[in-house]
Write a structure and sequence with these properties.
Lipocalin, mainly beta, single chain
Amino acid sequence: MRLYQRITAGGLVVTGSLGLFGCKQRDDAAPNDRRVVYADVNKDGIQDLLYATMTEENQDKDNDYYDWDLFLALGYSDGRFSESKKIATVGMPPNDLQAKDLNGDSNPDISYLVMKPGVTGKDGIYYDWGLMVMDGNGDGTFKSPREAYNFDKSPGAN
């Protein structure tokens, strides 16, 4: 099998073969990405790339804490992606990042779970989580994150 492309962004490596992707592409804006989703967010029939990463520009130096940002790279018909663009700051590391139509308007929406900072139990475990939603406009843009549901303890905990 011959390798045609390797997109490297921090610890993430996405590879394609058999001509599915173009030449090597690198996005240095994502040094620590961990959550990646593909979805056609601008409804052009081409998969786009959404990912979350922590950024040093949002570092709380007093607490050694980094906010996480969501980025979007639009897909091109030749298998490449546009330069990524920050679409939101999400705070704590997002979990279960997804892009699906949640409100029935046929536009992909973004959802993710996030821990709320500063809400811990006596054992130091976070007990307050929020299901955040960013309603999609269908053109690759999204409304600001809103809390769609609040969990009073960690999801899945008894």
